[in-house]
# Entry
Amino acid sequence: MISEETLVQQLKQKETQSQSFEVLINTYKERLYWHIRRIVLNHDDADDVLQNTFIKVFKNIEGFKGDSKLYSWMYRIATNEALTFLKSKSKKLGLSDIELQDRMIGNLEADVYFEGDAIQLRLQKAIAALPEKQKLVFNMKYFEELKYEEISEILDTSVGGLKASYHLAVKKIEASLKED
# Structure
């Protein structure tokens, strides 16, 4: 595994760009896919957003200054792409964000790529009901096991604010699971 700095340098050089981009995709595609999938909830949508994410990364790698880690930068792009996708989808379908979330949760049960049982489905429904920021923080902390400092870099938010959001998300999820 090459260092992030070396990979970024190779991505910025025309001679090594395509081979390095392949390394980048192979290194990060699964983590980014699951991050996106937890936001959009649908396999095909997650694939589309992942593809758009890598296109944006490729087009904008020249502008990457190295102020943050490469994967933090890519996670931020993936997060923004997923949220933009959801906004566009709700607008296209003429649905509110809440109506779209309800529809997405309903579709999750029929999704052949969803391998969860009834408990996991209830958890996904509880997560989907969270406000956007709490949902993102919960998914990154709980499923992706990112540290608060990493999440702070990705979402450009204070660690204290993230801890509060995570705590509130956990309380809401616990309450929701007790209700059902």
In short: The chain has a mean pLDDT of 88. The CA atoms of residues 55 and 175 lie 40 Å apart. The two ends are 46 Å apart (CA to CA).
